[in-house]
Amino acid sequence: MQPITGSGVAKIVDSGNPEFKVGDIVYGTTGWEEYSLITNPQGLFKIQHTDVPLSYYTGILGMPGLTAYAGFYEVCSPKKGEYVFVSAASGAVGQLVGQFAKLMGCYVVGSAGSKEKVDLLKSKFGFDDAFNYKEECDLNAALKRYFPQGIDIYFENVGGKTLDAVLLNMRVRGRIAVCGMISQYNLDPPDGITNLMHIVYGRVRIEGFSVSDYVDQYSKFLDFMLPHIREGKIVYVEDIAEGLESGPFALVGLFSGCNVGKQVVLVARE
């Protein structure tokens, strides 16, 4: 039996590696356990900036943050004034994509699964508008209501019916960055997509990507993000579950939208 692994922040309590000394704070792939023996430290990085919450290195300054940054700026190639739609918009990635879009001077709308999350998108993250997809019986009609002029950029986190409706509403030369499709992971078979010809009609570009393709941009990403965080120009919400025993519930809850913001499991405070 092996523990689950994931992105984590840890303190070095013993080290035989000259690159890491006792007391160093690191982030990278760690086990879901109070103490981990890491024999291959290539995936560990020292945390140099500790004036922000350390948990941020699992989120806004970690994989989700770099995912949002690379997906929006590199894959979507945004321009000022464009119309941007983000699904799962209150999640770890989506909340940042929306804020990046506003920094670019775009009009941005997000979808989420509860009134609380919709309110958060508008009041805290600065989205121009947002809606609860669970309350919409016709997603195509909803998107036409929020984007009467069409969508230039869709940041895809959901898949299925949402993607199918988006295809009907993309503007000519629109771009779709496919980050994930959380509605489909546990479906067998997955939902079919029926509106694919609209990719042809609208000359729409759809590109999937992995954050691993952009690891070499991490220093540039940090230089961009840290000043924005310190100046309050980008904010972040975490959903922190206390104690390792809460981990399984927190993990399963991701698939039904129980979390608000980035889901974090706090294994130990020290």
UniProtKB/TrEMBL annotation:
Lineage: Eukaryota, Viridiplantae, Streptophyta, Embryophyta, Tracheophyta
Signal peptide (from-to): none
Organism superkingdom: Eukaryota
SUPFAM superfamilies, alphabetized: GroES-like (SSF50129), NAD(P)-binding Rossmann-fold domains (SSF51735)
Keywords: Oxidoreductase
Pfam family, one: ADH_N_2
InterPro entries xref list: ADH-like_C, ADH_N_2, GroES-like_sf, MDR_fam, NAD(P)-bd_dom_sf
GO molecular function, one term: oxidoreductase activity
Domain Alcohol dehydrogenase-like C-terminal, residue spans: 92-225
Protein name (database record): Enoyl reductase (ER) domain-containing protein
Domain Oxidoreductase N-terminal: 2-47
Keyword Oxidoreductase assigned: yes
Native source organism of the sequence: Eucalyptus globulus (Tasmanian blue gum)
Xref: PANTHER family: PROSTAGLANDIN REDUCTASE (PTHR43205), PROSTAGLANDIN REDUCTASE 1 (PTHR43205:SF7)
Record's keyword annotation contains Oxidoreductase: yes
